[in-house]
Structure formats: C-alpha cells, structure tokens
Amino acid sequence: MIDSLIMSATLKHAVTHLLAESGSALTEKINAIWRDEDLDQEQRCNKTIAIIEQQFANQQYSDTLISLYQALYREKEQLNNTTADRHKFIVVIPVADRPKHLKSCLESLLQLCNAYGYGSEQDGQYRKIAVLIADDSKASSSREKNRQIAQYYQQQGIESIYFGQREQQSLVAELTAKSESDLSAILGDIETPDFFHKGASIMRNITYLKLHQLYQNSTEKLLFYFIDSDQEFRVNLATPQGDEHHYLINYFYHLDQIFSHSDAQILTGKVVGDPPVSPAVMAGRLLQDLIAFFQRLNTMKAEQPCQFHGRQQTTTDGAAYHDMADLFGFSTTPTAFEYQCLATGHHNHLACLNRFTERLNHFFDGEHPTRSSSYQSQPLDVSITPARTVYTGNYIFRPEMLHYFIPFAPLKLRMAGPVLGRLIKAEIGDRFISANLPMLHRRTVEEIGQSEFRAGVDHSDQLTDIGDELERQFYGDVMLFSVTALTEQG
Question: Are 338 and 369 in contact (CB under 8 A)?
C-alpha cells in the first residue's frame, strides 16, 4: 500500500515502519493524508508533522515516530532546495578548558544537522550553519584540543571558525586608544598578558567584535546563536525507565520561521536537564530532598531490593530547584522530590546509597541529584511570549542587536543574562521574546564526576569550596534587583 505513494526512499522507509507498529487511528490519519491528491507534497509533510506533534504533546514518543518526524523535515528541505531567503546561523560557543564538553556539544550539532538537514548540503557542507568557537582556556593543551575539534567538525561538514587568544588580542588591538578607554567597563583589562579565564561575560563581549566583523563581510541573512559548551541540541524526556535524550526539535527551521515572519529582534530559549543556576542557590531545596530520601531509606533494610526506581519527579517549572524562586516571580512547591536511583541491574539499598553518595558530589558543579527539568512539547506559536531574561546559554539575535552587550562584565557576577534581559526589555519591549526551544544542559562529565572547569568552584582532595561562587551569586542578585528597580523607574 505504501509503495504506491510518491515520497523519497528514506521517508517511505520511515512511514512503513511507523504504520507497522502504530495503532489503527494513527495509521488511518497518515494514510489519508498521503493519498489525498488535492494536497501537494509539502502540504502532506506539514499535515503529518502536525499529527506527530499532537502525539508528542500527549507524551506519546517512540524512536520510530521521532525518525519519521525528522524524515519529514528532510523531505521538506529537498522540496525547498533554494536557500537564498533562509537565515544563516552562526552558532557561538564560548569555552574555557572544556574540550570534552565542547566535543559533545559539536557532535550534537552535527547529529541535529544530519537529522533535519536545515539549509541542505552542498559539496559535503551544510550551507546555512557555521560555528564560532570563542576560546578562553588557560591550558595550552585545552586550546590545542579545541582547535583540533574545530578542524574535525569542519571536515564533517560544519563550517568551524576557531577564535583563539591571538585572534582575540589582534581584534582588540585594532581599537583606538579612546575606544579602549570607553570599552574598559565592557571588555575589562585588555592590556593584561594573561588573556585567558577572562570570564564568560567578557568573552561574549569580545566575541561581539568578531561577529560585527563577520557581519560586515557577509552577504547572507545572519542570525547569531549563543550557546554554552556544556549544552547539546537535544532535549530531556522523562520516561518510566528514566531520562532519555532525543533530537526532538528542529531548532534552525523554527528560528528561521520566527525571525522571517515577525519583527522579533532577540529570542531566548531555556534549558532542560541540569539547572542553569549556581549550586549556591539550590542548597536549601537539596537539603529538603536529602532529608526525605534518608527518612524513607531508614524504613527499609539494606539488603532489600532497591525501591528507588520509577518514581522520579521531573518538572517543566524552570525554578523548582531554586531556593529563592518566589523572589523571581515563580510559584514554589513545598514538597520534596524523590530520588531516582541510577544503579543498574539487580541491587539492594546499600548499592543505591553508594551510588547516591557518588552522585551527590556532582551537586557542587551544578547538577541536582533529585531535581531536573524535562521537555514538554507544545505548539511553538503558543509558546512565544514576551521575555525579560536572557538565558546566556541559549539566545539568538539579529546583527542589529550587537550593541546590547553584556553589562558589568568585568565584575564576573552571576545573573548577567537576567540583567541584560531587563535592559533590553526596557528598550525594545515585545520584540524581545521567549519560545519553547530548550537545549539539553549537562553540567558534569560522567567519567570524572564533575565539570572539566567551572569558575568559582575549587575542588581539592578533602573538600569542594564554592565560597567564591556564593559571593558572585549574592552580588549578582543585588545587581539584578537594582537594575530591575531602575528600569521600572524609567
């Protein structure tokens, strides 16, 4: 029956597998669409995509359904093989001594491009995707690895620009003496010989200079897309078997549509998975969950088969982990979150406790052992709302917005994104928007049990010191609430 339908071989394969395992209602709907002679091929794709997204919104996921979803978008790319009116994305990844994170991030980008094919390929290169790696590493070994990673993904089909310390210094050196003085509060001490670990905010601001240069030399419609090196172009799905990570969002296609058909100037997404905030503002919620875990564990026997599976509470509430959520306008939940054991195979509560104590150390790098956020699919147009906070690990803007640099960058405080967001909102209003386009956030590297590098966290054999992190968070909050009050006064 499928053989008579006009579609590419890969799409036909995906449809065949779906219809073989799906219920009759879904089968009938898809069959009806693809046999409707009044529809053209793109309309068939769009209608089928809408049906699948309804399944996603009802938490109905399967590998086959996701594969068909991706194949439909690849089919659309083949039908619209002209790319002249499409945006080209420059994905900016600031990185400091995190080559493992960087490789995982870029691998996810490559897999996303392979899955959805935005902009199509020409001579083995994705025409509408480029990466700018802004390296702030201290270790020469990290810089060399990052440069090699850029070269590798260039060979895999993604244009990769390595923006290292020499290139950064050269670009800053082109500023006039007056500009250096004017920009010192944005770029910090640009005369320092130690041109590394400048901080995420200063690094982004220096990268703005590079983006301006690229914009001046380009004939393309550009969008600049800032992400963090510990993120991936996937989402976190909560399942009875535990968290699963999937390429469920066609980021570039949706962003191209939004910026092509609206007057939006800057868009921010969020993250799912690990929280985007400092451990310094999660300790209260952590202790609440720890007490609940040990109280429950105390009622059980050590040799008893583990009972801490299949009960994990995940949330789409972006502040469920935050001790001060109410101060930021979020509703708070007083209930404790239950621990989901990560030990595999047949094991008892002693093994569960051992695994838990191993994972607990990850908290100091920002991974919460009991509270993670999961992705909830919804129609994209419904999710678009006015924004007030820039998530600096997931924001996209037009080149005209380059003058909205990260404020107070040399202070190296937390909350730089929310401060930037309040200032932008005060000036451009509803042209600053948010959409349900989150990225997967993974704070730690599994084999080492912590982040490769995290400013403000000092690891030693005996303890982990987050005192500097706490101070940067406290004064970052002071900065945010001060700027909020000032912008409200005009």
Answer: no
Closest CA to 269 of 209, 221, 226, 305: 226
Going by C-alpha positions, the residue among 151, 208, 241, 221 that lies closest to residue 402 is 208
**Do residues 428 and 390 touch, judged by C-beta distance below 8 A?**
no
Q: Nearest 5 degrees, angle CA 397-CA 401-CA 406?
A: 90
Name the pLDDT band for 215 (thresholds 50, 70, 90): very high
Distance CA 47, CA 44 (A): 5
Q: How far apart are CA 362 and CA 365, in angstroms?
A: 6
What 3-state DSSP class applies to 335? coil
User: In the block, which residue shows the tokens 């250096």?
Assistant: 180
- What are the residues whose beta carbons fall under 8 Å from the beta carbon of 247, sequence distance 6 or more? 66, 70, 108, 111, 112, 115, 116, 233, 234
Distance between CA 113 and CA 130 in Å, rounded?
11
| Residue 267, beta-bridge partner list | 396, 433
Is 336 within 8 Å of 315 (Cβ atoms)? no
Element (H, E) at 477: helix 467-488
Distance between start and end Cα atoms, the chain: 65
Average pLDDT over residues 235-257: 89
d(CA 443, CA 451): 6
The answer for residues whose C-beta is within 8 angstroms of residue 441's C-beta and 6 or more apart is: 228, 230, 231, 271, 272, 273, 274, 275, 276, 393
Place of tokens 């935050």: 322
Question: If we measure between CA atoms, which residue out of 366, 316, 373, 372 comes closest to residue 339?
Answer: 372
Residues 129-155: tens digit of each pLDDT: 999 999 999 999 999 999 999 999 999
